[in-house]
Amino acid sequence: MDLQNIRALVQWCSLILSNAYFGFLNTKQVYQGSLKSICVPILNCHSCPSALFSCPIGTIQHFMTIRKFPYLLTAYLALIGISVGSLACGWLCPFGLLQDLMYKIKSVKLRISEKLSSLRYLVLFFLVILFPLVTQETWFSKVCPMGTFEAAIPWVLWNPIIPVYGEPAVSTQSLGWLFIIKLLIGFAFLGLFIIAKRPFCRLACPLGAIFGFFNKYSVLQLKVDGNHCTDCQKCKTNCPVDINISDNPGSSTCVRCFHCLKCENVRIQIGTDGKKT
Amino acid sequence: MKIKIVRIVVFFLAFIFFILGDSNNEPLETQNNGATMCMACIGLE
Fold first, then answer.
1. Could you read off the pLDDT of A11-40 as tens digits, one per residue?
2. Cα–Cα distance between A94 and A105 in angstroms, integer?
C-alpha cells in the first residue's frame, strides 16, 4: 500500500475516532464524559454533537478567559511538537483532510506565498491568547471555520429539544450577526480550499503555528541529500503546502505528510538537526 | 548542538508543566469546558 493511501486511511480513522460519540442522538447534548478532559492534537470542535475529545485551541482560549496558564496542555502540545513536529497536521487533522480532498476539484489554482504563513502566529497571539485574556471571550472560536461546519451548522439545522431541560438546544433569538459572519468566513475558506493548497493550515491555523514552530527542532526530521539533489522542484510541485523541501527541510509550514519522500533524495531521520547534507 | 539544547529544555519544561498542570486539576477544568456547548463555536450571541 502506498504511503499516501495509508495517510488518507489514518486521516479518515482520526476523523471517525475523534467524533465517535453517538449518544447525542439520545441526549441531544454534547458528550460530557471523562474523555473530554483529553485534547486531541488536531482542530476538532468539542461542540460538535459527536465529538469525544476537547479541542486544544478552544481549551487554550478557555484558560485565557479564566486567566490561568494551561500547564498540562502546553506540556502536551510541546511534547508532541518536539517529538514529531507538525505530523498531526498532515496525518490526523480532519480539517487538513477536507482541504486535501477539496483541492482535488478541478479549477483555477492559486499559489500562496510561504511568507504569509506568519499570519498564523498573529492569529495565535491575538485571537487565541491576547483578546481572550483581556476581554474574557473566546475570539478564535467566534470565527473558527471548523466550529462552523462541525458545530454551528449541525446544531442550528437540527436544533433538538433537550430532554433534560425541555428547551431547544439553540435559541433562535441568539442567532445574529455573529452567526452570519461565521458562515461567511466558513464558506469563504471552503471556496479557497478548491483553489489553493491547504489555505487554512497556512494562513490561519493557530495549532499549525504551534506545531510548525517545532518543525526545526523536532526529533523527527526530514533530510535532503544535497549531493544528489538536482533542484528539480518536483518536491515543491507535489507538496500540499508548496514548500521546496530541499531548501528548508525544517520549514514551519511543512505538515509532515511525506509526499516529498517520493524523491529518493529525501528521507526521514530521527534525532538529527534537519539541515541539508 | 543548539537544537539538542532546545530539545532538552522543552522536554524538561514539559515534565515540570505536566506535574504543575496535574496538581492544578487542569484535566477537570478541560473536561468541564469541553462538556459545555460552546456558544462562540456555534456563533450565538
1. 999 999 999 999 999 999 999 999 999 999
2. 18
Q: Retrieve residue A249's grid coordinates.
A: 527541510
pTM, 2 dp: 0.94
Contact status, residue A44 vs residue A18, Cβ threshold 8 Å: yes
DSSP structure class, residue A169: S
Complex ipTM:
0.96
Pick from A37, A65, A83 the residue to mutate for testing the B interface (most B CBs within 10 Å): A37
Cα distance between residue A174 and residue A197, in whole Å? 35
CA distances for B29 relative to A58, A97, A123, A180, B26, angstroms: 12, 30, 24, 30, 5
With CA atoms as reference, report the closest residue to A106 among A33, A230, A194.
A194
Whether residue B33 and residue A58 make contact (CB cut-off 8 A), yes or no, is yes
CB–CB of A249/A274 below 8 Å?
A: yes
Separation between Cα atoms, residue A146 and residue A88, nearest integer Å: 16
Chain A hits for B7, CB-CB cut-off 8 Å, are: 82, 217, 219
For chain A, helix, strand, coil in percent to 5 are: 55, 5, 40
Under a CB-based contact definition with an 8 Å cutoff, are residues A221 and A269 in contact?
yes
How many Å apart are CA A261 and CA A21, to the nearest integer? 36
Q: Quote the distance between the C-alpha of residue A66 and its chain's center.
A: 24
Pair A100, A9: CB distance under 8 Å: no
